[in-house]
Design a protein that fits this description.
It is a single chain. Strands 1-7-6-5-2-3-4-8 form an 8-stranded mixed sheet, sandwiched between helices. Helices cover about 55% and strands about 15% of the residues. The chain folds into 2 domains: about 1-80, no CATH class; about 85-300, Endonuclease, Chain A (2-Layer Sandwich), CATH 3.30.870. By secondary structure, it is α+β, with helices and mostly antiparallel strands. A hairpin with a 6-residue loop joins strand 6 (about 215-220) and strand 7.
Length: about 300
C-alpha cells in the first residue's frame, strides 16, 4: 500500500479504482440485491448507521495493527529503507530536491543533467531565498584517455545507446569538459553558490544525487529505475560517505578566474581556459571539437527529456 501511495501516477489510479468499486458495491447492495430479496432493503438512515459502525470498527483495527507493526519492526529496518523509483519519476524528484535543499552532492560520469538542470535550479533557488548553496561535483577526469574510452564502451553497451550520437572517447571528454566549465562559470558568476569540483580516475554504473532530503541513485540508462533513500537512513549516510572517499582520491579543480560567456566564449578563449584549468594536456586538446563543447555549454540537453 505504501509503495502505491508514494507514487503519484499509481496513487491517482488507485483512488479512482477504489471509488469505482465503492460505487458499484452501493448500486448492487441497495438497487440490485433488494430486487431479488426484499429482506435486503435498507433505508438511507440505516445505511448511514451501518457505515459509521463499520468505520469505527475499521479505525480501531487499523490503529491496533499499525501499532503492532510499529513496535515489532526492528530499529535497523526503520533506518534502512530504500524506495524503487520509476524512470519517469526521477526527473521530477531531482528538480524538487534542487529547489528545497541547501547542499547538493553529485557523483557520476559526465554530469549532463547537472549541467542542464541542477545547477540553474540551485542558482535560481539561492537568488530567490537569498541563501547560499554548497555544491560538490565529482565526475570523470577528461585527461585520462583509457578511462574515457572505457566509459564510452560502457555507454555504447546500453539499450539507450541506439538514440543520439554514438559514444566515443572524444564525446565523453567533450561532455565532461562542458560540465566542468559550466560549473566554473556558475562558481564565478553566482556568489551564493560555493562549488567544489573533483575529477576521478574510475567510473561506476551508478550516479548519486544527494540533497538535504534524500539521495537518488540512478544508472546511466534513462530507461532504468532508480533508488531513493531519505535523510537519516543508513543508506543515505553510506552514500554520502562513499562520495567523501571518492573525493579524497580525486583531483580538485582549483580554477577561480572568470569564465567567458555568450559571444565572448570563442574557440580560442575556450582552448585557453581548458589549458589554464589543467583539464586536459596541451598535446590532446587538438583532438577535441571546441565548437561542439561551446554548444554543449550554451545549449545543454536534458538526458531525461529525450
Amino acid at each position: 500500500m505504501e509503495s502505491i501511495l508514494n507514487k503519484r501516477h499509481y496513487r491517482s489510479a488507485f483512488y479512482w479504482l477504489v471509488a469505482l468499486i465503492l460505487l458499484v458495491s452501493i448500486i448492487l447492495r441497495f438497487l440490485v440485491f433488494p430486487q431479488f430479496d426484499t429482506k435486503l432493503e435498507a433505508s438511507l438512515l440505516g445505511f448511514g448507521a451501518a457505515l459509521l459502525d463499520g468505520l469505527v470498527i475499521s479505525l480501531i483495527v487499523t490503529v491496533l495493527i499499525g501499532s503492532f507493526v510499529f513496535w515489532l519492526t526492528p530499529e535497523i529496518l526503520k533506518k534502512s529503507v530504500m524506495d524503487v523509483i520509476e524512470p519517469k519519476e526521477i526527473g521530477p524528484l531531482l528538480k524538487k530536491a534542487a529547489t528545497d535543499t541547501r547542499t547538493w552532492t553529485y557523483k557520476g560520469a559526465c554530469g549532463r543533467y547537472t549541467r542542464k538542470t541542477t545547477l540553474p535550479s540551485l542558482a535560481s533557488a539561492a537568488k530567490h531565498e537569498g541563501l547560499g548553496r554548497d555544491i560538490r561535483i565529482t565526475i570523470l577526469n577528461p585527461d585520462n584517455d583509457l578511462l574515457c574510452s572505457e566509459y564510452a564502451t560502457y555507454r555504447r553497451s546500453l539499450k539507450s545507446a541506439k538514440n543520439g550520437h554514438p559514444w566515443t572517447e572524444k564525446k565523453v571528454k567533450e561532455e565532461v569538459i562542458a560540465t566542468i566549465i559550466s560549473a566554473l562559470r556558475f562558481r564565478h558568476e553566482e556568489p551564493l553558490l560555493r562549488i567544489e569540483l573533483y575529477l576521478i580516475d574510475h567510473f561506476s554504473a551508478f550516479r548519486f544525487d544527494i540533497s538535504d532530503q534524500y539521495v537518488i541513485v540512478t544508472k546511466e540508462d534513462k530507461e532504468a529505475s532508480g533508488l531513493r533513500a531519505d535523510s537519516g537512513t543508513y543508506f543515505y549516510d553510506s552514500y554520502k560517505d562513499d562520495v567523501r572517499l571518492s573525493e579524497r582520491q580525486s583531483i580538485n579543480v582549483s580554477y577561480q578566474d572568470e569564465v567567458p560567456i555568450g559571444n565572448n566564449l570563442t574557440d580560442e578563449t575556450l582552448r585557453a581556459l581548458i589549458l589554464e584549468a589543467s583539464l586536459i594536456g596541451p598535446d590532446k586538446i587538438s583532438s577535441l571539437d571546441l565548437s561542439a563543447i561551446r554548444e554543449l555549454i550554451n545549449s545543454p540537453g536534458d538526458p531525461y527529456s529525450s
